[in-house]
Write a structure and sequence with these properties.
By secondary structure, this protein is α/β, with parallel strands linked by helices. Helices cover about 45% and strands about 15% of the residues. It folds into two domains: about 210 residues, Glycogen Phosphorylase B (Rossmann fold, 3-Layer(aba) Sandwich); about 180 residues, Glycogen Phosphorylase B (Rossmann fold), CATH 3.40.50. It has 16 helices and 16 strands. The protein is globular, with a radius of gyration of 21 Å. The protein starts with a strand and ends in a 12-residue tail after the last helix.
Length: about 400
Amino acid sequence: MKVLHVIPSVGPVRGGTSVAALELVQALRSQNVDAEIATTNDNGDRCLDVPLHQLTDYKGTPVRFFQKHLSSVNAISEFIFSWEFSKWLWNNIDTYDLVEIHSFFSYVCTFTGLISRHKNKPYIINPHGHFLPWVISQKALKKKIYMILAEGKNLNRANAIHCSTHQEALDVKHYGIRASPFVVPYGVDLSPNLPSPKDCLQEKYGVPVTTPVILFLSRLHPKKRLDFLLNVLESLKDKTPFHLMVGGSGDQDYEHTLINQVSRLGLGDRVTFAGFVGGVAKDLLLQSADIFALPTYGENFGISTVEAMAAKVAVVTTPALQLAPEIEEAGAGIIVPGERQPWINALETLLRSPEQRRTMGQRGERLARSQYDWNVVGRQLADVYQAVLDGQGCEVKSPVL
């Protein structure tokens, strides 16, 4: 089976969607599926320094990059147009058995859907949270027009819709998409334990070993609500010790706004911006953290949340994270509305209770190991692909629908 995964960007600044696509392809290859990625060299307002037009190893994944169209107009740049990708896909799509398209509302995704339909190539669309109510509400009229003109047909005529949670599958159905959704989650790599992570954090960032560490690990975007979390912590600064580690990057203007907010709230000695982190640097933040906090407006899966659970970190998040029911059922964290007082109460409770944090962390690790192992995920997705190619559909992977 030869499978092409198409995504507008695997640039680090694009956050969890890029990570999920790369690791999904790696998991499929471990199951002897000949999977690879075609994408652009986009990395936000700049381009990745990568070879173009040829299959190359990118972070352990076979990826073929194409030049994105550069424009000083932000709306055009964010559409991620690539004429070179268009030519290559038209000439080569027939060499693949199946295509999985990651996301939509982007040129690369829309064009791939159109060509797949034109050439009768089986294809699956992975929404990556685009049907979340908060996401749908942003630029709603523009998205509605785009759906009518192009994306609606791509979605309705897809062989299947790949959802990472049962709630996302329900969102797809509620939106009225006719293609059948199936549920296969993303996985998480279980990193080896670092020796004395608290000591290493103190050495690198100056955070005392005895101070409870709250971790915010995500792309810096208004949807993630780091600004809200900072306001909550301002109410706790005179009540209990803590230090907030922020791992992630985003739009520079937004980053500066957050840095200025930290200063304005008097949290300068309580907050550290570590920037984008990966590899051992990310492992250090995860393994030295006591609480993982994500007050998001909407998240279909939340890879960093699962990574935190795998690292035995207690979670505090909102019901807008679609993994929230599983976290709550497992007793791996506290799920609270995205309002100031509930968040103050939840964080203060955990900051004052090391034993409760440890218990939740242990439960979270068990959940991550049992449900989100990449080997299991790879096998599940490979089975769905084969079912689609055999014309059997994919309902077997969606028992709740």
